[in-house]
Specification:
single chain; 348 residues; 11 helices
């Protein structure tokens, strides 16, 4: 797999941008490739590979495609403080290199895909978590995050002893507010007496709330000080800081996107990770790559919800699976959402 390493220099001037692009090309490495001739690429969101969450789930999908579909995969890392021009350059280079599909991991790639996709009509562009930019060669991979978050709310309300739980969002965007909305509704529908403490780390255009563990750690500590004993973090790499703080306090974490109980980088804290709200980003990436290889590329909205197990709660922690009353409540809520008996809000 060819990986374009993270750019550490930050510059606004065009000269600095040019240096960054040059460095991007010179600092790539090969970690294996398929022999079938097909090529696919993913461009990471803020935090990059190693976030133990969203980006790592996308990487898992690419790695699966390399193994099972015999494709050659490329990865491209974001640079600190980058703008849309950097993303346009990144996607353009990936498409010119013959990758198909080219997948932008995260809604931040929407403006760049809008510019680049029309220039490469024979290349399929995927974008995860955005449906605003459409085109004949664009696949909009989206999830019902609010549904999985509702189940997390049910679990949190059943588990809390202090009657106070917390929600930490990385950046206050419509997408992350879906996580908050579902979580709060799930808590309140289960036990209206439970207090929910919502908090966001940064506001757009500052997206550092997805990449700075210290911010997540400080926010979690603040909620712990207010007696929260279950904290759900939807904050990318910053969420790892929250998980550390909650674990050291002996309280419960609820992870996000990936099954964070299984993430090697969080192994020291896994016993505190009650469950995680999962998004099947791995299979969504794999499925898009396979559709292109099969000659029937996915385009338009490709939605993953509870009905297709596209979102859900992980069951890896034995402590969680032993809580039979909690699991029963979660399963009941899941079925009622699928049956249309519960409509989950997408905004607080």
């Amino acid at each position: 797999m060819r990986r374009i390493t993270r750019i550490t220099t930050v510059g606004i001037a065009s000269a600095a941008l040019a240096l960054s692009v040059t460095a991007c090309g010179e600092n790539s490495s090969d970690s294996g490739s398929g022999s079938g001739g097909d090529k696919a690429a993913i461009a990471y969101d803020i935090g990059g590979r190693g976030d133990q969450s969203f980006n790592d789930a996308a990487y898992a999908g690419l790695a699966k495609a390399e193994k099972e579909l015999d494709i050659s995969g490329s990865e491209a890392e974001p640079s600190d403080g980058e703008g849309d021009a950097d993303k346009v350059q990144r996607l353009t280079e990936l498409a010119r290199s013959g990758n198909n599909p080219v997948i932008g991991v995260g809604f931040a790639y929407a403006p760049a895909i809008k510019k680049v996709a029309p220039k490469f009509p024979k290349t399929t562009f995927g974008i995860i978590d955005d449906a605003s930019v459409t085109g004949d060669n664009i696949a909009n991979i989206v999830f019902n995050e609010e549904q999985g978050s509702y189940l997390a709310g049910v679990a949190a309300a059943k588990v809390t002893k202090s009657k106070t739980v917390g929600f930490i969002g990385g950046v206050e965007t419509p997408l992350i507010k879906k996580f908050e909305a579902g979580f709060v509704q799930g808590v309140k529908d289960t036990d209206a007496s439970v207090n929910v403490l919502p908090q966001y780390l940064t506001q757009p255009p500052d997206f550092g709330g997805f990449s700075k563990p210290d911010l997540g750690k400080a926010a979690a500590q603040g909620q712990l000080d207010k007696k929260a004993d279950v904290i759900y973090s939807a904050a990318g790499l910053a969420g790892s800081g929250a998980i550390e703080a909650v674990s050291k306090a002996g309280k419960w974490n609820i992870g996000v996107d990936s099954d964070q109980y299984k993430q090697k980088g969080l192994a020291a804290y896994k016993e505190s990770i009650l469950t995680s709200v999962t998004k099947d980003v791995e299979d969504s990436v794999f499925n898009l790559i396979k559709s292109v290889q099969d000659g029937k590329p996915e385009t338009g909205e490709v939605r993953y919800g509870l009905d297709k197990d596209g979102v859900g709660l992980s069951m890896s922690n034995p402590a969680f699976t032993k809580m039979t009353d909690v699991i029963e409540a979660v399963d009941k809520a899941k079925q009622e959402i699928i049956d249309g008996k519960i409509t989950v809000k997408t905004a607080p």
